[in-house]
């Protein structure tokens, strides 16, 4: 937020363009000069990682879409053609397929970072809400994408998930038929899922632009969760944050490459290599790992309608987090109690994910009920109550002070 | 400032654990006799297929399995990867007939298969295949190793083909089915397909049941995942490149941050 006049560019073409449409000044302001708190850690790199994942998904997805055929009789073999006959088709597909997992992995960490350091609190509520919206759109995109290869899991996941809407009283059945475009998951369903899967990523791009715009108004939060007080608290985005983000990106890229090249089917269900068959139901129908916690919540509840409400509520409740947490202190570093409940929440979510992969039988159902209770209890009881009763530790005066002091002091303990 | 790193690492670990250990555990179904791991040459970071074994495996498929199982995602031209020449492939394909047409008079006709044709299936449709096999469908084998990955993939195929025996006293075998120690329920509609010396390998190797089972299992692993070798080769280069890139980026980052620390 510097008040300097817009920088002059030396290149005459750039200057000519910039005087008429200040794109270059804008990019410079937002991605070079953008003052970032100097104490941000590697958790802050996951936004950049997620953005690049989105672009990579769009690039590989566009190339896959040029070879893919959205028809029930041809979808499976067109994917096999991509894998066997299209030049580097196997590479495109394994990047795209595992990219969905890596994208969710990055976004889950990004989201958790926001929770741990209180990035959702005033003045960043709208920023957080836009983030949850992206998460929802990603779920819809990944779900419609998973249906496209038209394997057994594609078909049965589509059947199970669309059928959830039939729980809605009175109009449920009509909604399901409307989604299907017929009386079962069939060609019209596959066709519209392809259209939606093609469209939604571009909607995500639009929301990401808003997300970043909303970020650059108050600026980035930081691990201490305190306001930026002076210029000494911040560093320009480039080269400081860019050099740090590059490092995180490369490490992330190495992990991604190992999966793509050495274990491309590790996260895949083997049944999805079997062409869809409406007459044969797989033994266990399980969603992709990133949906498992929500799947466990759905199955924990005996009543179908309430289960569906809990499933969507589990995501929707994230929208309300800024208003449920009344504590003025952002960072968990200074919240000695909340911190432990938040870690327990992570363990709970991972546990729910594990339960989601298990068959719906005892003792898993009982465990899933307890874990679901904690999931909602965390948001609806623990968060509001601790916001009032917890005594936070004293906050540092400013970002630069503790950092500069420890740096100049000889190492203590 | 000691607190930051463990926190970061811990959450990374949690998520990794979830992604890598817990998620795939979902594919484990109840199993029959255990499937032993075989020393496949295509395992591991540098692993690649054994071309001679693949060619023998193709001979087993061609002379034994092809009478019941299709391989519909493969083309005859794909055999070039196994080391066959174009002339050999044309001759292999020409043994089979495919329906083509219509011709200028509007008639369908049959012609010899070409290298560009898909492997010709033994039955016209699933119904015909079932009728010939006691109502059981011999599955298409193009992706069988990927489909059976949860049970052991190529290891399972080897165990299945070598797992036939007389049923134990107590076991009631439905007439027509065969006893197999790794098949689900132990009663399979596929009669034991392999017998000692039933085919003559063109490279002179002795056709023992184990040899044939190993060769055809490797051949099917290749059929399921034909890009395996290229994938590992490119993967190694990508990982080495990224590692070097990491070193450069690390030095750069340290120099940049030295100014403020
Ligand atoms: C938010 C970004 C995206 C996510 C999370 C995503 C996710 C997925 C997933 C989970 C699959 C199934 C993978 C499989 O088993 O094959 C898939 C397939 C597919 N996606 Fe995407 N996708 C994204 C963006 C795109 C875009 C932008 C396009 C095209 C414009 C696209 C085109 C396709 C096509 C054609 C397939 C089917 C081919 C295949 O199965 O490999 N995707 N996607």
Helix content of chain B: 40-55%
CATH class of the domain at 37-68 and 140-224 in chain B: Mainly Alpha
Question: What is the 3D form of chain B?
Answer: globular
Give the total of beta strands of chain A: 2
The tally of domains of chain A stands at 2
CATH architecture of the largest domain in chain A: Up-down Bundle
SS strand fraction of chain A: under 5%
Query: What is the distance, rounded to the nearest whole angstrom, between the alpha carbons of the first and last residues of chain B?
Result: 14 Å
- CATH C-level class of the largest domain in chain A is Mainly Alpha
Could you name the CATH homologous superfamily of the domain at 37-68 and 140-224 in chain B? Cytochrome c-like domain
| Secondary structural class of chain A | mainly alpha
Summarize the structure.
Chain A is mostly helical.
Fold and architecture overview:
The complex is a heterodimer of chains A (413) and B (261). With 413 residues, chain A is mainly alpha-helical. Chain A has two domains: 28-266, Cytochrome Bc1 Complex, Chain C (Up-down Bundle); 287-392, Helix Hairpins (Orthogonal Bundle). Chain A is built from 15 helices and two strands. Chain A has a two-stranded antiparallel ribbon. Chain A is globular and about 65 Å long. With 261 residues, chain B is mainly alpha-helical. Among the domains of chain B are: 37-68 and 140-224, Cytochrome c-like domain (Cytochrome Bc1 Complex, Chain D, domain 2); 231-255. Helices cover 41% and strands 5% of the residues of chain B. Chain B contains eight helices and four strands, in the order αααββαααββαα. In chain B, the strands form two sheets. In chain B, strands 1-2 form a two-stranded antiparallel ribbon. Chain B has a two-stranded antiparallel ribbon with strand order 3-4. In chain B, strand 1 and strand 2 form a beta hairpin. Chain B is globular and about 80 Å long. The two termini of chain B are 14 Å apart. Residues 1-8 and 20-31 of chain B have low confidence and may be disordered. The interface between A and B is large, with 58 and 54 residues. The structure holds protoporphyrin IX containing FE.
